[in-house]
Amino acid sequence: MCLSIPGKIIAVNGSFVSVDYGNQGIRENVNNTLVEGRVGNFVLVQGGFAIKILTEGEAKEMTDALKIIETEFGTAEGMF
Question: Is 43:53 a contact under the CB 8 Å cutoff?
Fold first, then answer.
């Protein structure tokens, strides 16, 4: 199963961005060519690619849902 995870772009380096997932840490080298996000944008990331730009509200809603899943079904280790 693949999950798309929301995060915030904190740096751009050419075609790649660094994405902050909050408590889940920062991932560097996310490919940004599909959406061309900018610093401060919230993006949906899957398989190392930013696939959609989100509003802050959409990102929060998705993150909250993932936290509920973690609470109900156990650890989300590796989910993010």
Answer: yes
